[in-house]
Amino acid sequence: MGLGVKQLNDLIADFWADYAAVVLLGGGLLGVIALIGLFIWAKKSQKPLRPVALAFSMNLALLLNAEGMWVIAVDQLKLPKIFAVLVFAVFEICFLTATSLAAEQYRRTTVYGPDGKILTPGHPGPMLYIAALIAAISGIIVASNAVTGTEKLLRLAVPCVIFLMWWAALTAAGQRVRRGRFAYSPRRMAERWGWLIPDDDPDLVRMASERQVRRMVVNYHRVSGNRWPRAWWKSRLLKDARTAGEPVVADVIQQLARIQRVMDLLVPGGLQVAAPVVPQEDAAALLAQPAPGSRRDDLPEGPGGPGRPVPGPVSPAAPQVQFVQPVVADAPDDLVTEALAEALAAQRGGSVGVPIPRRAAEDVPEGPATVPVAATVVRGPTVPAVSGPVDGYDRPAGYGYDRGPIPPAVNGNGNGAAPIAPVAAENGAAPVSPAPAIPAWAAIGTGARPAVSIVGSPWWRLAVDRLSKQVAEEISVEDLPDMTYPRITELARNLAARNTELGEGVVKAFVNDYIRELNGEYGEVAYPWRDFLPPPATAAPGSGAWQAALEELRTALEEELSQGVPADPYELTELLLPSAPRLDEETIRTFIGDYLLALSGQAGSGSNQPWQHLLPRPQSARSATDEEILGAYGGQLEEYLAANGRITRNRVQSITGIKSRLQADRIKAILEERAGVPIS
């Protein structure tokens, strides 16, 4: 049989050597005929030829990549050919499996319409990235075995081309945007840097406007903060201001105002951002809105008609409003009193009330009264505002002057309204009021106590955070030995002057807790501020604090070893680490190792360390036998027995150092038996 196979191999080799060109030409012609037939079949059946061509080209490329894997398995790994046949194409099989699962996931998540067209494309899922990883790894492995540089590039490019062709064909209709994306993908970086022009894409238009808003806000703070070079940032801001639309400008102004509110909450009285002035028509629209509890009909009439605010320069940052002083008049006559009583009765009875004519526009006072008097809020029943003369009442002429209409009053129910007039500053600009000493956020919703004084509130924690930073600047590790009671009291008094919102008692309690934690003395804190306290400071080697920490560590180690449970040095280090907060982990581990070596009678690094006096004497795991003791001290014992003629038990213990009396008696009997001395 073997001879027949060899002859067959020789015949095939001779045939290939003689007719190789004819065979290749015939195979090429058959391939061309097969492609032409495939094209005709696709045209008649109206089926796309692209999937078949893609599958054919992918299989050819996978065969080329698998050939490289075969060479590695046979030549480099020296695997048997029977086993290499099974494992050489493992990457190709995994790649085909991953692409099949990804295509199935894409088709399952795709939404199709009634006509079969894709409405919402799907997403391949995680198998997309797994297939890319397999292609990259197989290409790198095959390329590493190549000889020339050209072959390396070819081997590396083949799997990448396969994956890109498959991915482009699969997602030709697009793919669904997932919930999570890479933060620094090429597209997102191009959007961030402005390399993509937003032609008709609403997402890119929104992105461009957001980028312009962010750039204008940042450049505004650079200009207002005199950041160098200020002229450059100013020119950039001017360039954006020329091209920005109205929505962008409104967003910039709103964001600057929000930044100022946040900074007032976090750093009260600190950074003051000079927000740009809102246009006058926006401010007028804000003032035109009625106050809560009042009606627009109660507002005084201005030149623009009823319910319209009096025009004037307004600053939206700090609009100043001043109440008009009511005209001081004499006591009204009986007719006026009766009219007011009827109006009051009608109001209590739920009727509409007495019709009251409105004042003319020229009767509105043009400015504040001569004598400034605070506005008075009248607590009592609801009284309609009387802003004109009452019908049917003839004013007597004997008074000698015209008192004018009765000004409207403000009652406790908010039904009446007092005429107000904005106070215009000189040169048409309203003065900006300085920052208040106590911010408005520090007293809202807390009753009689400011919010910063409530223990545990966010404002209180902000104040404690600032205090911790100030204490860290005042106290260092070198200052711990000098922190006596007078020194701590003086430091607390100085810090309390800088943190008046906390109080001297709270500041002193924080300083005491800070020093105790820095010194490694763990204990209960006075207030919930443990996360603001520092970790224990490491003591300098050789110092008194370092020696004291070593003694505490030795005490804790002896207590742990007295339980009789064998422990690993690393486990003991992790267990006893909180017992010596002033020591670093390396020192604790070295000391524990030397201590355990000294217990077993072995010499460690303790002889070169300053803790030699803290290490214990050697202790053997078992006591020595009689033969071992006689082997070590037999000469001395026999010499003493020969010189004195007798030996006692105490002498045996003093020479050998054993503690057991029974063992000493046994050794004494053995010595007397050897020397022929009568046993006592």
Characteristics of this structure?
680 residues, mainly alpha, two-stranded antiparallel ribbon, 52% helix, flat
Order of helices and strands: HHHHEEHHHHHHHEHEHHHHHHHHH
The number of helical runs is 21
Class by SSE composition: mainly alpha
Averaged pLDDT, please? Answer: 72
User: Globular, elongated, flat, extended or rod-shaped: what is the shape?
Assistant: flat
Strand count: 4
- The level of helicity is 40-55%
Report how far the terminal alpha carbons are from each other: 100 Å
Strand order of the largest sheet: 1-2
Strand content: under 5%
Low-confidence stretches: 286-329, 350-433
Radius of gyration (CA) equals 49 Å
- What's the story with the biggest beta sheet? 2 strands, antiparallel
Describe this structure in words.
- It contains 21 helices and 4 strands.
- The chain is mainly α.
- A two-stranded antiparallel sheet has the order 1-2.
- The model is unreliable at about 285-330 and about 350-435 (pLDDT under 50).
A few lines on this structure:
The chain is mainly α and 680 residues long. The chain has helices spanning 2-45, 50-76, 81-87, 90-109, 127-144, 149-170, 186-193, 202-224, 230-243, 246-266, 280-288, 334-348, 458-474, 485-498, 504-518, 544-561, 569-576, 585-599, 626-644, 649-656, 661-675; strands at 111-112, 118-120, 321-323, 420-422. The protein is flat.
